[in-house]
User: Fold Alkaline phosphatase D from Micromonospora pallida.
Amino acid sequence: MGQSDVHEAGLGRRRFLTLAGAGLLAAGTVAATSGPAFAVSPVGRDPFTLGVASGDALTDRVVIWTRLAPEPLDPSTRFGMGELTDVPVRWRVAKTESHLDTPAKWIASGAAVALADDGFSVHVDVAGLDASRRYFYEFEVDGPNGTVFRSPIGRTHTAFAPGGDRTARFAVVTCQNIARADGGEFYFHGHDHLAGREDIDFVVFLGDYFYEFGRAAHVPPREVSSLDDYRTRYGQYKLRGSLREVHRRFPVYVMPDDHEFFNDYRGGDLGGVGQVRRFNRALQALWENMPLRNAHPGPIGDTKNHLALYRRIAWGTNLDLFLTDVRQYRGPSLLGDAQTDDLLDWLRTTTATWTALATPTPIWWNGGNNGWNAFTSVRDRVTAVLEERKTATPATFNPVVLSGDIHCGIVTHVRRFRDHLSPFVATEFINAPMTSQSSNQFRPDDEIRGAYNGRYGYMECTAGPTGWKVRYVVGDQTDDPFGTVTGELPWHLDAGAAPGTVYQVA
Assistant:
């Protein structure tokens, strides 16, 4: 065992002892309670270069996040944190931005500990909030000579309460790559646009938040494999101002695909110890850099770690969203037994106006062999339930599928079987990539209602009491730092309509 392996194997116990000594939860996501004071050295420079984020919003709680990194691209200085080990981070939440300056008006506040072993990340699960409302939050740490560093002020939103007909509007983002093959960079014009919106309730990141491969424009320029490599790559992507701004302004739900780890990995069949360790490093880096409610995934050793990332997201009466994990359990099956059972149970029992199955890879029968189409058994079980529910309750069961991965925005349908003859059981909206390129060209036909070849951006989804709407917000200028995106003519589904009846209207 090399020196780096010895260090990684010791993370779990070191982390537990530090948290236990601080009087905080050892689970990784710190409870929203006041914490004790700590005698530590101050941070020398502004540590909030990666901004703030919130995520996994429920009706009564939300996770707020930051990661301290004065030098987010320099692992040799421990990302600018030097010899510091445990850093107290104060946090506060209020109903308005101005109330953050008045302690009497804070809704919640406390102190967490940013641990070196966790990349100096902080996850606070703030509970006791009201449903259906906006909140503001910020962090602060002590600097030298009595100074204080304050983070950017974050804005978040709790999920809508059940009841009522409030419309939910959210964005879906997939496949964001910085590094071009010719050594240049791609630009996130979709994020530039999304960050300025006031009508979005939350954002779903549905796979390939970054790419692990080596290219000249990537930092480091080689393929990432160590824990510090993954931390650095996250830092590079989060230094994009518009991506940080999206995180600052909207709660997010994150579901990785493969490139956050390594290309086409199969979590249920990783192979040798080297792949297991690499997976564990990537999993820890994912946890460190995202506002996840999950507990710390555990020490980086020879046994595969795990984060329970598949989950159900209910936003009021009109939207019930299920995020599937198509990578961690992949082996003999796509989803694993427990996730499959939970997904099927959800499909059978959900009563929301719109039942949205969000999955990183397409269910569409012609969507390639990198996901559902390689696992016919689970695909058939899911499509069978979709058909049964729509047949039994056609007026109230309204299924849609949201996916990504194939680097082209496509409006199509899920057929009962993997063929071009069986009936439609749901409409599928495949997201346009943020920047990732493809040489494939799709054309409208009996299967494809619309295709956005060579267009990049994000997908805006609206779930209302009488209809579902998707607008592709895209452009073709990812190589141009001054490029733009525009909203295309939206696609509509009427509540109660049969699958296959998607249409466009101005």
